[in-house]
Each structure stands twice: as structure tokens, then as C-alpha cells.
């Protein structure tokens, strides 16, 4: 595996320094750029002497090229964020890449390889929003998400689709992200967001994972439940249908018969039951023609619950995930990584790491 990612990291550093393959060939003393191309694609090994040249001439550390717990030049991210500058977002991405790279490196060693095949949705950017909603409805039915789909979505993504879902501590403005690696799909969710927003982000990023090859998402997008470019609108329509399928909404009767003075209370109550934001529920009803747009516009989002960080106290999900912690625990137990390094990876002391294993119901490694 080291051979594969050294070439990718050389390419990433070359592009960051705005060097051509010819420039790199001269730096290494190669006769032509074809040798550089072969290294970057993993077709040719890098010798020890060439690795020393890369460290010296490109001004990078040896760990940059050899540490398996780094994600450089391999994964592609798509972030949902609000008013987060590129520099701050990229810094957080590098940190998140450490967790993903660690799981990617360790999981196969402890018998937790990623699925051989990937699922995908047969949707392109040229299809209708109704097609995305229909795909969401079918997803709910096929995977049996039940009367409250939001409550079971993480489990289905992990168990049925092999997607690594991580609940993370991210600063305000970052909602979550999808990450695509050649051998692994990952969704990150800011666990400090209110429950309805977490679930919407989760379903939204699921759409990107399932359609990545057909329509790769932008590196960064504004976190919103409506609007955006066409791919984001398709993702929003899919997410709304997954969390609020018509079969579930039918249980709550005819919305057109609700008096205007009672509408806010009903939206809030149903949103609480479905674990979604009341604003997302409002616009889902509009999309299904169960609520007139003019009526929806009279309902202020300020009167609706679960719409932001000021929505009141909420129970936070545990950091990371049980499958993730199981892999880390097995690696420590088998001596593949030390407890100290595992703790440092997660920004925890060894004692805090032991506590996190316990809260996830994961047996602590013998070393702890």
C-alpha cells in the first residue's frame, strides 16, 4: 500500500508547487517525464535514493510520503458549510483525513475490508427533481427504513452499503462532508448540529456517495435545504424523500385542512416525530403539493423548531462511530498501533480513549 500512495503524494506535492512532470523529471535526474508519470500512477516503485531526493528537493518530511495515517492526493471531499473560508476548511479536511486514512489502512488488517461492490443510483444531473424524490422513496422501501427513516439511516448506510459514517466535532459553519476514496466511502457529520439538520446532512451526503461517478459534487457547497446548483437540488429532493416519504406523511392526514393558526404547531410536532427540521418538512409538503407555496411562505422559519443551533438542548451522538472504534480497538489489541498513537490520532489521552471504547460498548484492548 505504501508504494501506491507515495506516487499519489508526489503528484499532489508537484501540483501544489505548480511543477510540471518535466520539471520533476529534471529534479530527480530522469531522462524523461514518462518515469514521473509511472511513479505517480503507481506503475513504478520509488527507490530509497529517490525518496531522499523528494524529501530534500520538494521540502517535505519523510512522513508526508510514508505515513499511512495521512490522506494526501487520494480522497476527494465535498463539504456542506456556511461562511467557512477555504484555509480553515482545508485545515479541518487535513485533520479529518487522518481518521479516514487510519481506518482505510487498519480495517483490512483486522478483517474489516470495504465491500467489493458499490451501490449507485441511476440518476444524472439532467433528470427531474421528481426522479430524485422517487429514488428516495424507493430507497426507503428497499431498505425498510420504517415509520421514522431518520432513526435507521446510519445503520443502513453502515451495514448495507459499507459506508463509514463518523460523527465528528467540527467548528460552527461545517455541517458535514462526503469523502470518496478508490476503496472506501465516508460521510462526516458535525455532531453538534441539531438532530434534524444532522439527518438532512446525512441523507444529502448519501446522495452524493451514490451518484459520485455520474455527477461528482463540488468541493464545497453552502449548507441549505433548498436551492443551490442542480446537483445540490437533486440531492436535497432525494434527502427530503428519504426522511419524509409519502407513505409516512400519509399518516398525518390532509395538511390542506389544517387551520392557518394551527399549522406551525402541527409542523413542529410532526418534525419532532420524524426527527427532521420543521422547515424541511414544510418545503417537502410544498413539493408534494400538499401545502400551497403561498401558505408556506406565511410560516416564518423563526417559528419552526429544529432549524439551527439555537433550537435548544439536544442529546449529542457519540463521537466517531462504533464500527470505527471497533477497528481502532482491534488494531491496538493486535499490536498494529499503540494506544498512545491511537489516542493522538483522535486527539484523546489514553484514559479518554478507554472511556470512548466503553461508551461505544466496544471491549477495551488489553493494553488499556
Could you list some keywords that capture this structure?
globular, 50% helix, alpha/beta, 17 helices, 368 residues, 3 domains
Largest sheet: 5 strands, mixed
- How much of the polypeptide forms β-strand, as a percent range? 5-15%
Integer count of domains: 3
Annotation, overall tally of beta strands: 5
Query: If you compute it from the alpha carbons, what radius of gyration comes out, rounded to the nearest whole angstrom?
Result: 23 Å
Q: Which structural class is indicated by helix and strand composition?
A: alpha/beta
* Mean pLDDT, all residues: 91
Order of helices and strands: HHHHHEHHHEEEHEHHHHHHHH
Report helical residue fraction.
40-55%
**Distance between the first and last residues' Cα:** 29 Å
Low-confidence parts: none
Q: What spatial form do the alpha-carbon principal axes imply? A: globular
- Spatial strand sequence of the major β-sheet: 2-4-3-1-5
Number of helical stretches of at least 4 residues: 17
Q: How is this structure best described in words?
A:
By secondary structure, the chain is of the alpha/beta class. It has 3 domains: 2-66, 434 Repressor (Amino-terminal Domain) (Orthogonal Bundle); 75-317, no CATH class; 322-359, no CATH class. 50% of the residues lie in helices and 8% in strands. The chain contains 17 helices and 5 strands. Strands 2-4-3-1-5 form a 5-stranded mixed β-sheet, with helices on both faces. β3 and β4 (184-190) form a beta hairpin.
